[in-house]
Design brief:
Radius of gyration: 27 Å
Distance between the termini: 44 Å
Helix content: 40-55%
Shape: globular
Number of helices: 19
Strand content: 15-25%
Oligomer: single chain
CATH class of the largest domain: Alpha Beta
Structural class: alpha/beta
Length: about 450
Amino acid sequence: MTDPRRRLPSVDTLLVRPEIAALVGPHPRSLVVRAVRDALDQARGAGGAEPDEGWSGAVAGRLARAAAPSFVPVINATGVVLHTNLGRATLAGPAIEAMCRAAEGYSTLEYDIGRGARGSRHRHCRDLLVELTGAEDAIVVNNAAGGVLLALAALARDGEAIVSRGELVEIGGSFRIPDVMARSGARLVEVGTTNRTHLKDYEQALTHQTRVLLKVHRSNFQVSGFTAEVDAAEIAQLARAGGAASVYDVGSGLLIDLAAWGLAGEPTVPAAVASGVDLVVCSGDKLLGGPQAGILVGHAAAIAACRQDPLARAVRSDKFTLAALEATLALYRDPERARREIPVLRMLTEDVDSVRRRGEALREGVGGEASLIEGESEVGGGSFPGTTLKTWLVSLTSDHLKVDLLAARLRAGDPPLIPRIHEARVVLDPRTIFPDQVSAAAHAARAALDG
């Protein structure tokens, strides 16, 4: 018996079919050829059967998937404000405008207009960070892990860095502080225990090889009960007495106190600087509400050491990051304006009645298969662990769709609507849905329920 796969058309035969040939032009020929080959490979794997949708449909479908960008906007209906998988902080309008200006033409990235000569990218954001934090100097790198790596390489390479065992945290993507420290060339010295570390533990570990005392804020988990830790001011004082530097990784980059809105426990960057440590390291894309960046602020000598280290070039920020961060920082000159215009701060401090009104509009847009229930939002991004925010959830119900299938349909929409499953129900949290997205979110939910 003849193998059915021998009757499959050739690549060239399919390419000359009018409906497939018409795909060349709107798409590069190489991409169409690849789609044809993929369709044929699929058919061979199926024993030589022609695709159910026909050759033109199979090729067009594969072509659409191959040409589609992998990076697409979504509507975050999870209620997690700093959702790492969805890009963490969304940017304020001025930051977006600054990035667009940087993209549209040439800029003063490394050019000093006054002198008509080469300048330094490290000057961007420097003055604003000094003004807002009270530090002597500042430098911006690509992310906070890069900032810790640079700080330890510049200040502790070939020497010892002392850190509490309770602060050897694992950060995103399974990367761990000990691993970052090892790459810096510093030798890790652990002191204390998981739950309790005292000043005497640091004192007893000091040697002539000690270069840095490192404090790491546990921003993505909590230790409660029988605990003790040494505050940054004591570590700074001990480091100075021992001829070493002190570095404080505060994590999320909080610039203003949010305790008035029930958010407490995260150190602010100005308070960390005021503790007297030599360097404070934080993120730009978490509670600060800017682009992904690592920010180092502190004493001039420590920042100079970081700026002059060869790793500074490897972890430097690009023009888009610097433009967006500068615009974001400028908003903090007026804290109330920052709270209104920086999306992260606005969502974290929004009154629950305001969230409910948006939830009611969303429920009405979805229709009879939606109801409004009380719930909780999360800060996310490894910030304010254990803290939740009161919210209202739009619960979706369907007589013919199981929870997982309904959630999948929402994610497959245009734009994708990312829900969460709460108590075996698909829910949408309006806290993280922007006001101008409510109509689109309602339409996407309605389409998923009706499909």
